[in-house]
Write a structure and sequence with these properties.
- This protein is about 30% helix and about 20% strand.
- It is an alpha+beta fold.
- The protein has a 3-stranded antiparallel β-sheet. A two-stranded antiparallel sheet has the order 1-2.
- A hairpin with a 4-residue loop joins strand 4 and strand 5.
- It is globular, with a radius of gyration of 15 Å.
Length: about 130
């Protein structure tokens, strides 16, 4: 597991590091996937990239808005929401797009889709990483 600094929050002379702990596979995939042609590999939680077919990959793990984060076809949204103790309606109301979701939600979605490595094909383009 790898701990990543998300933000350093300072107030009143005191600072607190806001971090997230992710797996080494997630870190490798995010380093390949997130960002755009200018910020590739920067682990950009708000990254948005449009694919040739018009679908959108978003967030640090470039989760697709058609195959995974889809309000019309929730085959993958339901297990993601259920594993967080939420409904898919709640998840999509709070975070209509994956790039709007906080890092812990994005990572949670990654873990569900990654499925202990069985979901690797969703990130086959990052296999060299």
């Amino acid at each position: 597991m790898i701990e990543i600094l998300i933000a350093l929050i300072c107030a009143g002379g005191m600072c607190h590091a806001d971090t997230i702990t992710i797996s080494s596979e997630a870190a490798a995939i995010a380093s390949c996937e997130s960002g755009d042609t200018v910020t590739l590999g920067t682990l950009d939680w708000h990254a948005v990239n449009v694919n040739g077919d018009g679908t959108i990959d978003g967030g640090a793990f470039q989760i697709n808005n058609y195959w995974i984060w889809n309000p019309a076809d929730r085959w993958m949204m339901r297990p993601i929401a259920r594993s967080m103790g939420l409904t898919s309606d709640q998840v999509l109301t709070w975070w209509p797009n994956v790039w709007n979701a906080p890092p812990d939600v994005q990572y949670h979605a990654f873990e569900v889709v990654w499925d202990n490595g069985y979901g690797w094909k969703h990130w086959s383009a990052s296999q060299p990483c």
